[in-house]
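call fold(seq) -> tokens
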Amino acid sequence: MNKQTLGIHHITAIVGDPQENVDFYTNVLGLRLVKRTINFDDPGTYHFYFGDEEGTPGTIITFFPWSGAHQGVIGDGQVGVTTYAVPTGALSFWAERLSSYNVPCEKINRFGEEILSFADPHGLKLELVERAERLSNTWSFNGVPSDMAIQGFAGAVLYSAAPEQTAHLLEKVMGLEKAAEEVDYTRFRSRGDIGNTVDIKKASSGCGRMGVGTVHHIAWRADDDKDQLEWRGYLEENGYRATPVQPRQYFNSIYFRERGHILFEIATDEPGFLIDERKESLGAELKLPEWYEPQREKIEQLLQPIEVRETDKKE
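ret:
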């Protein structure tokens, strides 16, 4: 049996103050808060999901905001950089917008693409790159018009402790195609139309340490529960031990640690974020899984109040 993932489903990171997190990803980057819920393993902590107007797989970045947590170190065993796709011709708009919010950025080049590199307020490394594929994101917020809006993930840069073994996994097990190679990076491409390019950094970045400003894991797409179970068996056939299926309310998940020490997840596209909210009101209310509903009052008292708000540019 040979299998192929469509590409990235979501990326999950650790950040600090929850309101700062919401302000940056909605106000500055123009993403939509599609779901506010909790960390199922730590119900006193939010779990935020940001993406396009309905949280399409391949557009979703998620966060565990822990105010006062120690700062992490980006390095081997992590997703080092999260890369977003913007429409052709939009990079100058984004350079001006980031500057207007006093977000330092620089232009770099990788695989012949001009890239805008910057960090969020908690140190997470981000990039914007123009891609010709135009998707259906029509979300517009706080001065980001839909024709300039982030379309979803272009991909990610993996900082692996064993780059050759991570490359083998992507190509020979997960079905990505080796697309290009430079001195410092190897690029792989999946068959999806978003979240479809993954670059592996060849040289060590030093040992990573989990904390604020680092990616916790990267999730890959499975069509449905049946496909996910096939993935679990297929991974085990190839020497990777995956967890039992974990229900995550809006998708189901399995996890495994690849040989470069990066935590991988395989998440189902179904059922999505519309199972408990209408499209027009996504992200408006705190949503809890049914097993936490009896504790709602206690949980809401633990969580710092947040709001999605349009704020002026920084002076």
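The chain has one domain: 8-302.
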